[in-house]
Design goal:
The structure is a single chain. The protein is mainly beta. The protein contains one helix and nine strands. An eight-stranded antiparallel barrel has the order 1-2-3-5-6-7-8-9. A hairpin with a 2-residue loop joins strand 2 and strand 3. The longest helix has 14 residues.
Length: about 120
């Protein structure tokens, strides 16, 4: 019976959300060259919160953030030339890296970001 409890606990830990809490620095190659973005993330259970900052769009709050195992997703709203634009992020955690794909739901390009844990 004890072994069953131990195995259950091990599987529960393995199935839990990745702990991406902390600061991450990301780079992406855009049409005008390399871009940088900082993510400050906090995980509470399967809920992901925080903010992200870029030199182009400034600071944005993470909305509808979720963590499912090594996968995470969230939305941010950025202002570009007096227009608000939603960007949907999907990421896959691998050690101290997150590979993000970003989509603009109203059309346009997707962008790939590689984030590395800073703290």
């Amino acid at each position: 019976m004890k072994w069953l409890l131990v195995l259950t606990a091990v599987f529960a830990l393995a199935a839990s959300a990745a702990d991406v809490t902390g600061t991450w620095k990301a780079t992406a190659e855009g049409p005008n060259g390399a871009m940088e973005r900082t993510f400050v993330l906090k995980v509470d259970g399967n809920k992901l919160t925080g903010e992200t900052t870029s030199s182009i769009f400034g600071k944005s709050t993470i909305l509808d953030g979720k963590v499912d195992g090594d996968n995470l997703s969230f939305t941010i709203v950025v202002k570009f030339q007096d227009n608000e634009m939603k960007l949907n992020y999907k990421g896959k955690v691998s050690g101290n890296e997150i590979k993000f794909t970003v989509e603009n739901p109203s059309g346009g390009n997707t962008l790939e970001w590689l984030a590395k844990r800073v703290s």
